[in-house]
């Protein structure tokens, strides 16, 4: 059984999609980040970085319980456990390259673009421009790569596609004001519609809908989400 520590944000969404694609048995363990549950010692024992997603596999290697944190590590672990979505072995270098491109570029810059456009105080025009333009640049790199291709790596659907879907599913927030959000990236738009039409994508999007996560951005939420903005107690 996979215990899936979840909050409805892009990186957990990737893991939800892979779990739904593989059919591995899992249970959702909510982590309400607006209440600060990601900082609880019990969760920090699973992910010392205090971020979602994380998983605990009760039937890990050698039958031992295994924890895995960071969405890219989780995708690799679960795909290898299921024996699916890792692509052709000869494409392994390409798979790892695009996974790291998403993990170190597309994802973080998209996240910062969302933060400075939607959550940061007004007047930070340099930061807004910096992260929005870098997010767009990463979109363009992937859009150029997808010209004439059906999938990011090789000829098959892999965890590279699953990883990218998690962030591109939120393109409307990353590219604030762009309607439709992927209009400027036609190859990505075409690719995204194919991935998003998979039955597992609809199921992944429904994960956690029955959980009442906190949505109010009050002082408690701001301190929980952005602790580095506040002096230590």
From TrEMBL:
<dbReference type="Pfam" id="PF13410">
    <property type="entry name" value="GST_C_2"/>
</dbReference>
<dbReference type="InterPro" id="IPR004045">
    <property type="entry name" value="Glutathione_S-Trfase_N"/>
</dbReference>
<dbReference type="InterPro" id="IPR040079">
    <property type="entry name" value="Glutathione_S-Trfase"/>
</dbReference>
<dbReference type="InterPro" id="IPR010987">
    <property type="entry name" value="Glutathione-S-Trfase_C-like"/>
</dbReference>
<dbReference type="InterPro" id="IPR036282">
    <property type="entry name" value="Glutathione-S-Trfase_C_sf"/>
</dbReference>
<feature type="domain" description="GST N-terminal">
    <location>
        <begin position="1"/>
        <end position="86"/>
    </location>
</feature>
<feature type="domain" description="GST C-terminal">
    <location>
        <begin position="88"/>
        <end position="222"/>
    </location>
</feature>
<dbReference type="Pfam" id="PF13409">
    <property type="entry name" value="GST_N_2"/>
</dbReference>
<dbReference type="InterPro" id="IPR036249">
    <property type="entry name" value="Thioredoxin-like_sf"/>
</dbReference>
<protein>
    <submittedName>
        <fullName>Glutathione S-transferase</fullName>
    </submittedName>
</protein>
């Amino acid at each position: 059984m996979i215990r899936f520590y979840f909050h409805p944000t892009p990186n957990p969404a990737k893991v939800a999609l892979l779990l739904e694609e593989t059919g591995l048995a899992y249970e959702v363990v909510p982590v309400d980040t607006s209440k600060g549950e990601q900082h609880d010692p019990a969760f920090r024992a699973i992910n010392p970085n205090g971020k979602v997603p994380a998983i605990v596999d009760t039937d890990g290697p050698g039958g031992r319980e295994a924890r895995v944190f960071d969405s890219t590590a989780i995708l690799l672990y679960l795909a290898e456990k299921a024996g699916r979505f890792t692509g052709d072995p000869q494409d392994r270098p390409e798979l790892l390259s695009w996974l790291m491109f998403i993990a170190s570029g597309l994802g973080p810059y998209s996240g910062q673009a969302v933060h400075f456009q939607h959550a940061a105080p007004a007047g930070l025009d340099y930061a807004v421009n910096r992260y929005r333009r870098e997010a767009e640049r990463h979109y363009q790199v992937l859009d150029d790569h997808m010209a004439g291709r059906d999938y990011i790596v090789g000829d098959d659907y892999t965890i590279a596609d699953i990883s990218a879907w998690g962030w591109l599913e939120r393109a409307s927030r990353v590219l604030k004001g762009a309607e439709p959000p992927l209009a400027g990236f036609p190859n990505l738009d075409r690719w995204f519609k194919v991935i998003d039409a998979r039955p597992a994508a609809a199921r992944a999007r429904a994960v956690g809908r029955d959980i009442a996560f906190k949505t109010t951005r009050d002082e408690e939420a701001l301190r929980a989400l952005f602790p580095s903005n506040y002096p230590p107690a």
